[in-house]
Specification:
Helix content: 40-55%
Largest sheet: none
Oligomer: single chain
Order of helices and strands: EEHHHHHHHHHHHHH
Distance between the termini: 17 Å
Length: 260
């Protein structure tokens, strides 16, 4: 589903564009964190965040933000280095990542927690930049589509889009802000549900459905709640509307899920 993200998925790609993440750097970071290349925001972010932070030891979780080295400096990751993320000047501690895994992802005062994007740099030049830091939801949708399709997550994302009825969501458009999306999350799920969701609450069957697609709303809904908590729910909706919801092959395969 479109980070983490899903995770999310969870966190969150025009077809001619490619994610500007340095692939060697992303690979090193993934190895450091022990990130599982699982999709769910956003969203490779959804899967990698949810599973890596349950499974990775505290020292490994710490190292993304704190390890020295050429490829972990702000020159390499300018978006995540700056506002509102500050991934290196205010690094994510092991205690904090454990809190997101076991207690809740959203901030303690009940808002979307964009700090969580520090945990998955592979979305720096799509969701982190064009959903959150410099919003351009149409461009983000194109970049996220390319990013996720290249990784084999089309079944996952397409089924998520239709099961969550993002295709027909009347409350989200290109101009929707993160703050407005929080109100949409409140309306759809209830404030307590999305502000209390934790990465560790991922349904056990989700991992098995990454390549085959979701078959029931409960699994897909986890990623929608994670998207609310990570601040990219509105970008998920636009991502779906601009891609899978318009594609005949996916409409034919998953359009019936809109009735669930």
């Amino acid at each position: 589903p479109a980070v983490g993200r899903e995770l999310a998925a969870s966190c969150a790609v025009p077809p001619t564009a490619t994610a500007a993440v340095n692939r060697d750097t992303a690979g090193e970071l993934a190895a450091v964190l022990g990130l599982l290349q699982v999709k769910a925001g956003g969203r490779e972010s959804r899967g990698s965040l949810a599973q890596a932070h349950v499974a990775a030891p505290p020292a490994a979780r710490l190292s993304l933000a704190q390890a020295p080295g050429d490829k972990l400096q702000c020159l390499t990751h300018p978006t995540l280095c700056g506002e509102p993320f500050n991934c290196w000047s205010d690094p994510v501690s092991s205690e904090l990542s454990d809190y997101w895994a076991n207690v809740h992802v959203a901030t303690d005062d009940g808002h979307a927690n964009v700090k969580t994007w520090c945990l998955d740099p592979s979305f720096e030049d799509s969701v982190a930049k064009y959903c959150i830091a410099e919003p351009d939801l149409k461009l983000n949708a194109q970049l996220t589509y390319k990013h996720n399709a290249d990784r084999g997550y089309s079944e996952n994302d397409a089924s998520y889009c239709f099961l969550m009825n993002h295709c027909g969501n009347p409350d989200i458009n290109f101009n929707t802000t993160m703050e407005q999306a929080e109100a949409v999350c409140d309306k759809r799920f209830g404030h307590e549900r999305w502000t209390q969701i934790a990465y560790g609450q991922q349904p056990p069957e989700v991992a098995a459905q990454i390549s085959t697609g979701f078959t029931e709303r409960a699994s897909a809904e986890y990623w929608a709640l994670i998207a609310c908590a990570m601040g990219n729910y509105h970008c998920d909706v636009v991502y779906c509307k601009e891609t899978y919801c318009k594609m005949p092959e996916w409409i034919s395969k998953y359009g019936h899920l809109l009735k669930q």
